[in-house]
């Protein structure tokens, strides 16, 4: 559970084979998050990485084709990173600051007020869409008149050369409308 994970000082978050929001609940608990470079990011991880709230760890990506020795070297790299954090007081102070900022960011951006703001914004935009009236609007906000197919055809034929015009205007879709064949009962 998320509360069980919050009891640990260091948390390792690696990409898996399915979508996961496991990082979301532990972001506010104040643990140090160790993360390797991932190939895929969800909305939350992208912000977490951009703000630098994690300690990067270089481990190889797991695939079934790699031998087991690569997983062992990945575990060694993880253990060496944790040992370096424990030994260096300056790195430990930096990590403590990252923990504090990550917890504060999670409470501000993922708290109930932020969810309330998001829902209100979404509902307001949805309400604006309900008042939408179909039609063509220019980038300057002026309403354009409806364009008929014959006007489009005239503009297209105007830009072609006479040879191209003859070629394209003789097609079956440029002629008069085809009358449906009556069905016999």
Automatic annotation (TrEMBL):
<dbReference type="Pfam" id="PF05686">
    <property type="entry name" value="Glyco_transf_90"/>
</dbReference>
<dbReference type="GO" id="GO:0016740">
    <property type="term" value="F:transferase activity"/>
</dbReference>
<protein>
    <recommendedName>
        <fullName>Glycosyl transferase CAP10 domain-containing protein</fullName>
    </recommendedName>
</protein>
<keyword id="KW-0808">Transferase</keyword>
<feature type="domain" description="Glycosyl transferase CAP10">
    <location>
        <begin position="5"/>
        <end position="135"/>
    </location>
</feature>
<comment type="similarity">
    <text>Belongs to the glycosyltransferase 90 family.</text>
</comment>
<dbReference type="InterPro" id="IPR006598">
    <property type="entry name" value="CAP10"/>
</dbReference>
<dbReference type="InterPro" id="IPR051091">
    <property type="entry name" value="O-Glucosyltr/Glycosyltrsf_90"/>
</dbReference>
């Amino acid at each position: 559970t998320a509360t069980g994970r919050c009891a640990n000082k260091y948390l390792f978050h690696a990409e898996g084979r399915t979508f996961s929001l496991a990082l979301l609940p532990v972001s506010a608990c104040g643990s140090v998050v160790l993360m390797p470079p991932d190939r895929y990011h969800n909305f939350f991880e992208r912000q977490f990485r951009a703000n630098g709230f994690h300690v990067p760890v270089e481990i190889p990506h797991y695939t079934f084709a790699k031998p087991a020795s690569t997983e062992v070297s990945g575990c060694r790299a993880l253990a060496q990173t944790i040992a370096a954090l424990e030994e260096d007081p300056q790195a430990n102070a930096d990590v403590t600051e990252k923990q504090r900022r990550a917890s504060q960011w999670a409470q501000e951006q993922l708290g109930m007020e932020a969810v309330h703001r998001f829902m209100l914004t979404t509902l307001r935009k949805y309400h604006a869409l309900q008042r939408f009236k179909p039609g063509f609007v220019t980038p300057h906000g002026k309403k354009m008149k409806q364009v008929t197919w014959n006007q489009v055809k005239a503009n297209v034929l105007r830009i072609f050369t006479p040879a191209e015009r003859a070629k394209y205007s003789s097609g079956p879709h440029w002629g008069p409308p085809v009358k449906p064949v009556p069905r016999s009962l």
